[in-house]
Structure formats: structure tokens, C-alpha cells
Amino acid sequence: MSDKKATLKVDGLDETIELPVYSGTLGPDVIDVGALTSRDMFTYDPGFVSTAACESKITYIDGGKGILLHRGYPIDQLAEHSDYLETCYLLLYGELPTAEQKETFVSTVKRHTMVHEQIRTFFNGFRRDAHPMAVMCGVVGALSAFYHDSLDISDEHHRQVAAFRLIAKMPTLAAMSYKFSIGQPFMYPDNNMGYAENFLHMMFGNPCEPSNVSPVLARAMDRIFLLHADHEQNASTSTVRLAGSSGANPFACIAAGIAALWGPSHGGANEAVLEMLEEIGDVSRIDEFVSRAKDKDDPFRLMGFGHRVYKNFDPRAKVMKEAADDVLAELGIENDPLLAIAKRLEQIALEDPYFIERKLYPNVDFYSGIILKAIGIPTSMFTVIFAVGRTVGWIAHWHEMISGSYRIGRPRQLYTGHTQRDFVALEKRG
Ligand code: ACO
Asked: Could you tell me the CA-to-CA distances from 214 to 89, 198, 209, 263, 327 in Å, in that order?
């Protein structure tokens, strides 16, 4: 915080309004506009393009420079030297764990991987062809009906237990939503395995044979979770904060985050990337689709390109691209037709003035879709995997808000509807 002030002069208002300006440790200053309400005025910022909705110490992004820091640590360093659960610890508690702290954290997460047996029955209420994100919205929200002993948000212990339960159970529920859709038996978690390895075991294993998860694929999966772990005040995280600001329980708040993530402009983009590559179908048709993306009268957009915040290469996309190259080399899939389309599309978009002028770089979803496809994850599960990785970010933000001072989130509006008018009786209308 600082002594800086912004002065606002409004036409028709005699006085100038002084507004406090606050500085963070990094990033732009913010103007506190709270004093405007008493002058019967609001700010107007659809899409929250220049609105800071909270103070946070968790994640910092500089979209212009392509920087992403979790608790100060650059994402590429975490992706290279850390793993998903260690990054979860960092996001939740603010520091990297000691060896002992890490061991305790990992073993606590592992002790919560199983879900209440009744949840297996709950799944039977869904259609087999339901989208796994639809199932996840329902089942994660329903956790609040199963875990009554971690719903008191004013109790720090309850909050901690809810955090462990959510991080631990998300892979189990995600794999169950897939197994249900293909009519295979649910797999119980194997707590001798690592987090990502266990997820792949529950996704692709069956009770009749021992699981054999490739360490290379488990490492790639772990990186995907890590690279999605948090991303500051994006649409789903802001949704979780808004839901949480009313005092809703953590399971309900995370279900709200899952719903917000589902949209194709946010987490649904990785699924949309693969659908788009399939629709393009052949390298020879790329130019046609690029022209459509540039045509103002065509709603088509190149999925996996552009970002609200990054106007430079998304640092996660850089790591994801390297991971994609590793996985493809390891699996020996260099001649896949969809990958050929993806690579050509990336090259064209990076050279085309339309994309260069608008700073539309390939985003993290462009490459994650490619890796997930190579690992054998069905397209409909892509956004679910994003949700599994992002759960820790949602909880870290929810916890930061609940353990500090907060008010219910309640935006205002610029009303452009009718002014007051008298009710017209039915027989007099028309
Ligand atoms: N293809 C073609 N043109 C695009 C694209 C795209 N993918 N993205 C943006 N543009 C154009 C817009 O038409 C606009 O052009 P104009 O200035 O001539 O009108 C300009 O670039 C700016 O775009 P906006 O829509 O204003 O950018 P905004 O910040 O609102 O949207 C978004 C960001 C939603 C990510 C957008 O780039 C998009 O739809 N991308 C495709 C979907 C996608 O990949 N989403 C994943 C985001 S990453 C994540 O959630 C993890």
C-alpha cells in the first residue's frame, strides 16, 4: 500500500474526487474506487479487463513479458525441478516444503484418495453418454452431501480436511466419470503409486490385470497437472471466490469452478482444439480455416490461440510444447495426421500478420490437447483433467479469501432497461 492518490474530475460535479492508489510487490498499481458509491457512481468494466477484485499473494502473471510465478517461483523452474503435489503444497502454504513436510503432505493426500462407497451408486443416476464434465459438476457438488465433517468454513481444521479431500479425490472421481462412460468397472486408487501414476492406473487399468503405467507418461501427466495448478484470478477461480464469498461450502464452490471451467473460452478449449484439428482433417485445408478465423463475419476462431492476459508466448505453453515433443518421441508417434495439422497451424499462425498484430500465440491448451491425445486420453476428458490440476488453485484462493477479511461479492450494473412504468392489465395489452 502507498500514499499515492488518483484524482478524478467528473463533468457536472464541482468537487474532484481523490481516490487512494495501492501498489503491490509486482504489477500495476490499483485505484481504490470504493469512494465512488457515496457519490452515486460506479465503475464500468465488462469482462473485468481492468478490475482487481481482490488482494492475493498466490500467483503473479505478467502477460506482456510472458511471466508466471507461483509464490514467486517461475513456472518453468517448477515444471523442471518440482512435481504436482509439491507445487500444491507451495500454493496452499506459501513455501516449498522441507523433505519431512513433503512426505507428510503426500501421505495425507494419499490417505484421502478413496471416495465414500455410496458415491459409486450415485454415478448410476447419470446417463452413460453424459459428458464427463457434466458428471463432475454433479458429483463434486455432491461431496458436500457425503463429508459433513468438513463443511464448517469458520473452522481451520475443516478447511484443511476439505482441501485434502478435494485434491485427493478429484483424480478418483475423474477416472470414475470416464470408466462409467465406457461401461467398465471403477478402479480403486492404489496408494503405493504417485499422484499422476495413480490417475492413469484408475483411467486405464482393470481389476483383472496388474496395472503397468509408463513412468514417462506418468511424468507427462504430472506436468500437465502442475502446469494447470493455478492461474491467478481467471474465470473459474473468480467464480470459486464469488461462490465462496457467500459462505458456501468448499465442495459447492469447487463445483461452481468446474462449471465455469467447462466453457470453450476457458478450460473447454483443449477439447475444442482437438475437435478443430479433426474438423480440419488434412493439412491441405488449413488455409481455409485460417481464412475463416480471420473473417469478421465468421464466428469461427482458431481454438488454442490467444489469451486474455498473455500477449506474448504463454510460459506454460513453452514447457507444454517441450513435454509434447518428449512424449511424442517416447511413444514414437511422429507421423500422426492430427499432429501434422497442429504443427503446420502453429507455424502459419506464428508467421501470419493477423495473429502477430493481435499477439495471438498458441496457448497452453493447444499443446496439452496434443499430449493428452498421445497418452490416449479421450477428448471428452481433457477439460476434466484441467479441473483436476486446477483444484488446488481454486482451494488456495478460496482459503486465502476465507482466512482473511472479505465481503460477499456483489457487482453493480449500468442499467439500460425501462424506467418505471405502470402495470397494464392483460385485456389492455397488445
Ligand atoms: N482466432 C482468431 N481470432 C482471434 C482469436 C482466435 N483464437 N482470439 C482472438 N482473436 C481476435 C479477435 O477477433 C479480436 O480481433 P479484432 O481486434 O480484430 O476484433 C482480437 O483477436 C482480440 O480478441 P478478444 O476476443 O478481444 O480477446 P479476449 O481477451 O476477449 O479473448 C480468448 C481471449 C477468449 C482466449 C480468445 O483469444 C479465444 O477465444 N481464443 C480461442 C479459445 C481458447 O483457446 N481459449 C483458451 C484460453 S487459455 C485457458 O483458458 C487456459
From this structure: 25, 11, 15, 31, 11
| Cα–Cα dist 290/316, whole Å | 24
Q: What strands, in cross-sheet order, belong to the sheet with 5-8?
A: 5-8, 17-22, 30-31
Which residue in 307, 314, 397, 399 is the catalytic one? Answer: 307
Question: Rounded to two decimals, what is the model's pTM?
Answer: 0.90
User: Nearest to residue 273, comparing CAs of 310, 240, 317, 311?
Assistant: 317
pLDDT at 2 over 70: no
Nearest CA to ligand 1 atom 29: 308
Q: Output the CA torsion sign for 128, 131, 135, 138.
A: negative
- The predicted-structure confidence for 59-93, as pLDDT tens digits, reads as follows 999 998 989 999 999 999 999 999 999 999 999 99
Residue 419 CB partners (closer than 8 Å, separation 6+)? none
Residue nearest to atom 19 of ligand 1 (CA): 296
Cα-flanking dihedrals φ and ψ of residue 267, to 5°? -70, -20
157 assigned to active site: no
Q: Which of 266, 325, 326, 336 is flagged as catalytic?
A: 266
* Interval between CA 306 and ligand 1 midpoint (Å): 5
Give the chain's mean pLDDT: 93
Residue nearest ligand 1's atom 25 by CA: 308
365 catalytic per annotation: yes
Q: Which of 308, 319, 394 to mutate to test the pocket of ligand 1 (most atoms within 8 A of CB)?
A: 308
Does 265 sit in the ligand 1 pocket, CB within 6 Å?
yes
CB 153 within 8 A of CB 243: no
DSSP classification of residue 96: P
